[in-house]
Design goal:
alpha/beta, 19 strands, 29% helix
Length: 358
C-alpha cells in the first residue's frame, strides 16, 4: 500500500512509499479506502514541530473515502459506505461531551499515540490519530462519518476540517451579528471559510487580510467587501470603523504576533476569535490593564467550536442550497505521488486548498 511518510520532525519533504500497511483493525474499527484528501496547514505545523506529533508519521487528517471493512461491534456502517474522516470524534461519555462541548473531547487525541501503520522498518503513526495521505487507513468507527451520495469525495474531504473550522468560528464561536464589521487575518482555506460564515451571518463589512495577492483576490470572490495586505490593515480600520476597531477579528494564522495585531484592531468590547493552531512556546502578551479596561472578548475556536456532526450536516445543507461555495476552494489537484508539489503550493500561498486524489 502507498502512503506519504515524514521520517523525522523538521524535514520538509515527504517520501511516498509502497511498503506501508494499515494496522489496528479489529472490534470497533473500520478500514477506509481514501479517495480524496486535502492538505491543511496543520499538516505542515506537525511536520515542522509546531504541533506535537510522534514520528515517523503519515500526515493528513482531512479526508474522505469508502468503507472497505468493518470490525465486530460496528453496527451503523458497512462496506461500501461513503464517509468523511473525522479526526476529533466525540466519545459521548466524557465530561466535555456531557456538557455539549463535544469539540473538546479528548478521545480522538488519545489515538495519536497509537501507530496506525507499519513498514518493514517499524511502526508509523498517523497524524491526529488518522493519517489520510495514504490509500487505506484504519480508524475507530466514530472517525468515519457517513455522507450522502451526492457529496463528492473532494468536497467531503474539505468538510472534514478546514471548512468546518472556518465556518464554525463565525457561526458558532463568534455568532457574528448582522450588520457588524469583521476582519479576517489569514485567507487560506480556513480563513476563506470564516469569510463565508461571516457573510452568511450578515456582516456588513468583511475585510480580508493576507500578504498573498491571489488570496486577497479570492477573498473578494467569496464574500469579503475589501482585501488588504497586512500593512494596509490600519488604514482599513480607519476607513471602515473610523478608527474604533472591528466588531470581530478572526486570527487564522496561529502566531502570537498576528494575534496581537488582531487584538489591537478589535474595538473595545469587541471579539477576537483565535482560529489558528500555534506552538506551545509562542506566547501572546497582554497587560492586565488593557484586559480589564478594553473588555475585549478573546474566544479560541477549536474545530469550529460546536458539535462536529451537526456542523457537517449544516455545511452540506448550505452547500446544497448554494449558500456557500466549496468547489472553488479547491484551486489545485495532484496525485499522491505529487504530494511535495502540494506542500510547496501551500507554503507559497498559491493554493487555497490542494486536493490530493488517491
Amino acid at each position: 500500500m502507498r502512503a506519504a511518510i515524514l521520517h523525522e520532525i523538521g524535514q520538509d519533504k515527504l517520501e511516498v512509499l509502497d511498503d506501508v500497511e494499515a494496522v489496528g483493525f479489529g472490534p470497533g474499527k473500520v478500514r477506509i479506502r481514501v479517495r480524496a484528501t486535502g492538505l491543511c496547514h496543520s499538516d505542515l505545523s506537525a511536520m515542522n514541530g509546531v504541533l506535537p506529533q510522534p514520528a515517523p508519521f503519515v500526515p493528513g487528517h482531512e479526508g474522505a473515502g469508502e468503507i472497505v471493512e468493518v470490525g465486530d461491534g460496528v453496527g451503523h456502517l458497512r462496506a461500501g459506505d461513503r464517509v468523511v474522516v473525522c479526526w476529533l470524534p466525540a466519545c459521548g461519555v466524557c465530561p466535555a461531551c456531557k456538557r455539549g462541548q463535544t469539540e473538546l473531547c479528548l478521545a480522538g487525541f488519545m489515538n495519536a499515540g497509537t501507530p496506525n501503520f507499519r513498514r518493514p522498518g517499524g511502526d508509523v503513526f498517523g497524524f491526529a490519530g488518522t493519517g489520510t495521505f495514504t490509500e487505506e487507513v484504519v480508524v475507530d468507527a466514530g472517525c468515519a462519518v457517513p455522507i450522502p451520495d451526492d457529496v463528492p469525495f473532494d468536497i467531503a474531504a474539505l468538510i472534514g476540517c478546514g471548512v468546518t473550522t472556518g465556518l464554525g468560528a463565525a457561526l458558532n464561536t463568534a455568532d457574528v451579528e448582522a450588520g457588524s464589521s469583521v476582519a479576517v487575518i489569514g485567507c487560506g482555506g480556513v480563513g476563506i471559510s470564516a469569510i463565508q460564515g461571516a457573510r452568511l451571518k450578515g456582516a456588513a463589512e468583511i475585510v480580508a487580510v493576507d500578504p498573498v495577492a491571489s488570496r486577497r483576490e479570492a477573498a473578494l470572490r467569496f464574500g469579503a467587501t475589501r482585501a488588504v495586505a497586512p500593512e494596509g490593515l490600519g488604514d482599513a480600520k480607519q476607513s471602515v470603523t473610523a478608527g474604533e476597531g472591528f466588531d470581530y477579528v478572526f486570527e487564522v494564522v496561529g502566531r502570537s504576533a498576528t494575534a496581537r495585531t488582531a487584538y489591537d484592531h478589535t474595538r473595545r468590547g469587541g471579539t477576537l476569535v483565535v482560529v489558528g493552531a500555534g506552538a506551545m512556546d509562542d506566547f501572546l502578551q497582554l497587560n492586565m490593564f488593557e484586559l480589564f479596561f478594553d473588555e475585549k472578548r478573546i474566544l479560541p475556536s477549536m474545530y469550529g467550536g460546536g458539535d462536529v456532526l451537526r456542523s457537517y450536516e449544516r455545511t452540506i445543507a448550505l452547500w446544497r442550497a448554494g449558500r456557500i461555495d466549496l468547489e472553488s476552494l479547491i484551486t489545485h489537484r495532484v496525485p499522491l505521488a505529487g504530494i511535495n508539489e502540494a506542500l510547496d503550493q501551500m507554503r507559497s500561498g498559491t493554493a487555497l486548498r490542494t486536493c490530493i486524489e488517491i
